[in-house]
Amino acid sequence: DKVRGDVLFDNVTFKYEDNVVLQDIDIDAPAGKKVAIMGATGAGKTSIVNLICRFYDPQKGRVLVDNVDVRDWDLKTLRRSVSVVMQETFLFSDTIANNIAYGKDDASMDEIIAAAKAACAHDFIMEMPEGYDTVVGERGVGLSGGQKQRIAIARALLVSAPILILDDATSSVDMETEHKIQQALKRLMAGRTTFIIAHRISAVKDADEIIILENGRIVERGTHDQLLKLRGVYYDIFRD
Ligand code: TTP
Ligand code: MG
Fold first, then answer.
1. Is the CB of 50 under 6 A from ligand 1?
2. Distance from the CA of 86 to the center of ligand 2, in angstroms?
3. Three-state secondary-structure class, residue 31
4. Residue of 13, 23, 25, 47 to mutate, ligand 1, most atoms within 8 A of C-beta
5. 38 Cα to the center of ligand 1, angstroms
6. Which residues, by Cβ under 5 Å, contact ligand 2, an ion?
7. How confident is the model at residue 127 (pLDDT cuts 50, 70, 90)?
8. 39-49 pLDDT, tens digit each
9. What ipTM, to 2 d.p.?
10. At a CB cut-off of 8 Å and minimum separation 6, what does 151 contact?
11. Residues in a beta bridge with 218
12. For residue 36, what pLDDT is reported?
């Protein structure tokens, strides 16, 4: 079945053992909507998106995709419908080309290079001893955090899942590179339900809804303009 990408959090409460990390979370993200999540470290941002992929299940409430509880989805279909740039990028002990093509085995070399260029990864890849054939990961050449993130973004650019999660996707790249990648990310987000977790206002201000999390609860929500008028937490971040 084709997944449209409507995502709904219906009164979700989630804990790790006894530690309550999300409480009474409601989020309505119909297909194509952009939701940004901000909040201090430990606020629960990653936990929210983990529930969509079913890395965990909530103790109370439901997470729905296309009006179906994610628990009732075939796990393979669900995971294939979500493209994630994770906070910690996982690279396989394999070539850079294969790491980028992970999730799209039939990608051509031209597609891989185009994705790497859009993610500002092509130049540093070409400087590696074997270019795209350089083995990275545990048993290969080490990459910096920012380089890994750009590989992960190239990977996401190759697949066309209806739901996209960007968890601190550009936190380790410098501002100039981030600015360049933003263009590619904008194209990537077009038409997809997107969850953007970020710390910089520039990465979230165009979202349809910005959610501020504090200790697992939503304390503010709205558009950039609405939140500025509120003169609350978001406004304070904006002024800093
Ligand atoms: P996260 O959801 O990981 O918080 P975050 O993504 O907002 O933080 P960061 O900006 O640093 O990425 O964690 C929320 C809470 O859950 C936090 O108190 C740590 C706790 N936690 C566990 O107890 N076990 C776990 O496996 C994880 C991932 C988090
Ligand atoms: Mg996190």
1. no
2. 9
3. coil
4. 47
5. 13
6. 45-46, 87
7. very high
8. 999 999 999 99
9. 0.96
10. 89, 91, 96, 99, 100, 116, 119, 121, 136, 143
11. 213
12. 98
How far apart are alpha carbons 23 and 34 in whole angstroms?
22
Higher pLDDT, 160 or 114: 114
Q: Could you give the CA distance from residue 99 to residue 133 in angstroms, rounded to a whole number?
A: 10
User: Which atom of ligand 1 has the smallest separation from the CA of 213?
Assistant: 7
Q: Rounded CA gap, 100 and 222, in Å?
A: 35
- Residue located nearest, by CA, to atom 1 of ligand 1: 44
Q: Which of 82, 110, 100 is nearest to 153 (CA)?
A: 100
Going from the Cα of 145 to the center of ligand 1, the distance in angstroms, rounded, reads 19
CA of 42, nearest ligand number? 1
CB contact set of 202 (below 8 Å; sequence gap of 6+): 182
SS3 percent helix, strand, coil of the chain, rounded to 5, is 35, 25, 35
Taking each helix axis from N to C terminus, what angle separates 145-158 and 175-189, rounded to the nearest 10 degrees?
A: 20
pLDDT of residue 68: 97
Q: Write 103-107 long-range contacts (CB < 8 A, 24+).
A: 103/155, 103/158, 103/159, 104/158, 104/159, 107/158
Token pair of 157 as six digits:
């650019």
Alpha helices, DSSP H, located in the chain: 45-52, 75-80, 96-101, 109-118, 122-126, 145-158, 175-189, 201-204, 224-230, 233-239
- Number of neighbouring beta carbons within 10 Å of residue 19: 8
CA distances from 58 to 14, 30, 80, 198 (A): 5, 20, 21, 23
